Amino acid sequence: MPNPENGSKWGILGGSFDPIHNGHINLANSVCSKKKLDGVLVVPAVKHPNKNRLSEANYSDRVAMLKAALLGMTEFLICEIEAEESLSGYTIDTVRALKKRFPKVKFYFIIGSDNISIIDNWYMAEELISEVEFIAGTRPGSGNADKSQLPVELIGIPELDISSSEIRKMIKSGCSFEELTDYVPASAAEYILKKGIYNK
Hints:
Elements: E1 9-15, H1 22-34, E2 39-44, H2 59-70, E3 76-78, H3 81-84, H4 91-101, E4 106-112, H5 125-131, E5 133-138, E6 153-156, H6 164-172, H7 177-180, H8 186-195
Parallel strand pairs: 1-2, 1-4, 2-3, 4-5, 5-6
Helix pairs in contact: 2-8, 4-5
């Protein structure tokens, strides 16, 4: 599996991944391919700075789902830096920690188009933009770039209408394995249903 090294270019895909789904993978794959990145660091959040937004699955289960979903996908590398360094959960702290750990790597922070309009409200947004370039996966010509005052590069990707919250609702309503694998990689779906993660 590749690792960030001197002179390489890597994306950062952060999030709760509660659970990871095909939309996350599609976004990262599209940006990785179109920007010719060496790989994408997938960084699971340990906690959210907004204490009202807690993950339903615990950290170890979310990491296990990531490992199951990304098994064999050599362009992805799971990085548990937020847990290893007890980080705050703010994106700027995570980016700075990654740049310190891999000082000669060029990083790009990957987001979905739904986050473009709220980047301006992120903690220390202007400082964050000066630390790392942002790339948003979006439909070409959607006009989402106008929703932020900060520079964001747009990458056209096939749109997948998927959200982790909707997937959790499906699981709680008793969806089948086959229904779940329309949205979640089969290996992760198997883990979710076997452990009953979202039925607790």
